[in-house]
């Protein structure tokens, strides 16, 4: 499960946010029913990207052949659809869904259709974090950066102090350093 965006990034019907990681791109969208859905950001016909960045649409449109898709990922319009006969089913030409979960104001995505639910994956950590009312918090500012390294290593280094004693030994000259560590199912505090 990965944090894709905040709920307030897509407050209204048709608001979308693209989440890109390595070679994958995911569209997270607020549907007409108010539900949050996510799809692989690719036209099922020839693989063209459907959206870039964040914005608002009534439907997604492939700029290459003009195919259009509803906010629910269903095909709205296929150029010369009758030429295809019965060889194209709705399932063949619908956007490919990605699992979505919401917790603490965050929208999470998971590209593994067989994964456990977000709630199950968060386990005890989700229960502990719920007391902080993260859903009521808002961005003060955002910063995007590109690091030539494994993204998980970069994020972890900024989120946990456990590495300081081994990596930033120069700081140990200023006092005793201790970072509390504890395991919570699949997650840990360190």
Mean pLDDT: 90
Oligomer: single chain
Strands in their spatial order, largest beta sheet: 1-10-9-4-3-2-5
Number of strands: 12
Helix coverage percent of residues? 10-25%
The major pleated sheet works out as: 7 strands, antiparallel
- Radius of gyration, in Å, reads 21 Å
- The unreliable regions are none
Shape: elongated
- Give the helices and strands as they follow along the chain: EEEEEEEEHEEHHHEE
Counting helices, strands and paired strands, the structural category is alpha+beta
Straight-line distance between termini: 20 Å
Work out the strand percent: 25-35%
Number of helices: 4
Structural account:
By secondary structure, this protein is an alpha+beta fold. 16% of the residues lie in helices and 27% in strands. It has four helices and twelve strands. The protein has helices spanning 90-93, 118-130, 151-159, 164-167, and strands at 2-6, 15-21, 24-30, 36-40, 54-56, 60-61, 68-69, 75-77, 97-103, 106-110, 182-184, 187-189. The chain starts with a strand and ends with a strand.
Give me some keywords for this one.
190 residues, 16% helix, alpha+beta, 7-stranded antiparallel β-sheet
Question: What is this structure's SSE topology?
Answer:
Elements: E1 2-6, E2 15-21, E3 24-30, E4 36-40, E5 54-56, E6 60-61, E7 68-69, E8 75-77, H1 90-93, E9 97-103, E10 106-110, H2 118-130, H3 151-159, H4 164-167, E11 182-184, E12 187-189
Antiparallel strand pairs: 1-10, 2-3, 2-5, 3-4, 4-9, 6-7, 7-8, 9-10, 11-12
Brief summary:
With 190 residues, the protein is an alpha+beta fold.
């Amino acid at each position: 499960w990965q944090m894709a965006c905040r709920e307030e990034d897509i407050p209204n019907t048709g608001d979308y946010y693209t989440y890109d990681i390595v070679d994958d791109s995911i569209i997270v969208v607020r549907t007409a029913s108010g539900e949050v859905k996510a799809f692989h950001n690719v036209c099922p016909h020839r693989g063209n990207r459907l959206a870039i960045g964040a914005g608002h649409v009534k439907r997604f449109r492939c700029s290459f052949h003009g195919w259009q898709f509803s906010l629910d990922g269903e095909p709205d319009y296929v150029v010369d659809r009758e030429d295809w006969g019965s060889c194209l089913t709705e399932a063949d030409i619908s956007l490919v869904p990605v699992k979505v979960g919401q917790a603490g104001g965050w929208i999470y995505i998971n590209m593994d259709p067989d994964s456990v639910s977000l709630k199950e994956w968060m386990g005890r950590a989700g229960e502990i974090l719920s007391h902080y009312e993260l859903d009521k918090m808002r961005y003060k500012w955002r910063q995007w950066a590109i690091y030539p390294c494994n993204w998980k290593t970069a994020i972890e280094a900024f989120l946990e102090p456990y590495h300081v004693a081994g990596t930033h030994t120069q700081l140990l000259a200023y006092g005793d350093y201790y970072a509390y560590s504890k395991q919570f199912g699949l997650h840990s505090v360190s």
